[in-house]
Amino acid sequence: MCACGPALRASEAAAGELPALDASGLRIGPPVARIGKVVCIGLNYHDHAAETGAEPPAEPVVFFKAADTVVGPDDTVLVPRGSVKTDWEVELAVVIGRTARYVESHEEALRCVAGYAVAHDVSEREFQIERGGTWDKGKNCETFNPLGPWLVTADEVPDPQALGLKLWVNGDLKQNGTTADQIFPVAEVVRYVSQFMTLYPGDVINTGTPAGVAMGQPEPKPYLRAGDVVELEIEGLGHQRQELKGA
After folding, report:
1. pLDDT mean across residues, the chain
2. Is the separation of the CB atoms in 213 and 49 below 8 Å?
3. Which of 36, 209, 215, 241 has the maximum number of C-beta atoms within 10 A of its C-beta?
4. For residues 160 and 106, is the Cβ–Cβ distance under 8 A?
């Protein structure tokens, strides 16, 4: 950690000379602060819809996660009390960089994107599907949205539809997909969502997960338990690692 004063750090930053921080032993928090809302898109990969037995949706399935579900990429994930079906989902997160309101074109939509990050859309399937009402009960448990480690700016991701996504549980590869399989690509997701709500700088959109979730596996489905370790990554966007503990 730099011991110099704020004025010196500011001058170094202006000159492009800010020294890299040695992060060893330090907690890495999420790369976006003061998130207004986390908008999520469900069933947005052809292979994931197929493994769950669902028809590909005609329009994006939209739900929300509370901003306070967001934690750092390597923070502990808590298995909710009473949970029997906690599941994993690696996702491409889109971070909004300028206000998006009634966006008309895909080109305009992509101009509203500040960058991209790795998101883990942890889900409790019993709460989500079997307890009635909306999906929100299975999506908003504490620690259910690790984000990061990096916010990679849009200029460094020439094609958000050409990114590989992987997730491992206890060292076993469970998800191995590509954003090319998205039903609704990033540009369409941003355009579509902006017709129903205003997106502001710092808002996050989780754009769905590929096949390989526990819910799509044969019985007995290998849902997560305390003590499990989940690792996930997206090509060019970094790596996450979480240990699970009981809430």
Report:
1. 92
2. no
3. 209
4. no
Q: Are 75 and 245 contacting, i.e. CB atoms less than 8 angstroms apart? A: no
Beta bridge partners of 184: none
Cα–Cα distance, 121 to 242 (Å, whole number): 13
pTM value is: 0.90
241 Cβ contact list (under 8 Å, min separation 6) = 73, 74, 229, 230, 231
Q: What is the CA radius of gyration of the chain?
A: 18
CB of 157 closer than 8 Å to CB of 186: no
CA 229 – CA 13 distance, rounded (Å): 37
State the DSSP string of the chain. Answer: ---S-HHHHHHHHHTT-PPPP--TTPPP--S--S---EEEEES-BHHHHHHTTPPPPSS-EEEEE-GGGEE-TTSPEEEPTT-S-EE--EEEEEEE-S-BSS--SHHHHHHTEEEEEEEE--EEHIIIIISSS-GGGGT-STT-EEB-S--EEGGG-S-TTS-EEEEEETTEEEEEEEGGGBSS-HHHHHHHHTTTS-B-TT-EEE----S--GGGSPSSP--B-TT-EEEEEETTTEEEEEEEEE-
Strand order in the sheet with 164-169: 77-79, 238-246, 229-234, 164-169, 172-178
Report, as an integer, the average pLDDT of 234-242: 98
d(CA 48, CA 53): 9
Residues ≥6 apart with Cβ < 8 Å to 112: 96, 97, 98, 99, 100, 103, 190, 194, 199
Average pLDDT over residues 167-175: 98
Model pLDDT, residue 4: 41
